[in-house]
Amino acid sequence: MLAAVDHVQLAAPPGSEDMLRTYYAGVLGMTEVPKPPVLAARGGCWFAYGPVQLHLGVEEDFRPAAKAHPGLLVTGIETFARRLAERGAKVVWDENLPGHKRFYSEDPVGNRLEFLEPV
């Protein structure tokens, strides 16, 4: 039986690790998690914040996920959105999910991310 989501994997182009670190660690405030050596040789990087883990894996024929996305619960969503905007990230509010405040953003390689908070 399923117990929880362990992580979400997103794709990234080769050589984008420094941009990803700047965004996921610097902008979102996540911590980089060391990859096991055999997986580190493939490139990419992993990030965590509490139980939330996002893995960014290198894909040679990369295309950003424009529709598919992780939905990340946040607290203090307005403050969080301001933090992202102040650091140059796009923030697009969407009022179409009853009982939630939410917005979409993109990482530096174009992957869509949803941030939401129940109201």
User: What is the CATH H-level superfamily?
Assistant: 2,3-Dihydroxybiphenyl 1,2-Dioxygenase, domain 1
Strand order of the largest sheet: 1-4-3-2
State the secondary-structure class: alpha/beta
Number of self-contained structural domains: 1
Beta content: 25-35%
Largest sheet: 4 strands, mixed
Quaternary state of the chains: single chain
Query: Which CATH class is shown?
Result: Alpha Beta
CATH topology: 2,3-Dihydroxybiphenyl 1,2-Dioxygenase, domain 1
Rounded average pLDDT: 95
Distance between the termini: 30 Å
The Cα radius of gyration reads 14 Å
By DSSP (H or I, 4+ residues per run), the number of helices equals 3
In total, the number of strands is: 8
Query: What helical percentage do the residues reach?
Result: 10-25%
Shape call: globular
pLDDT < 50 stretches: none
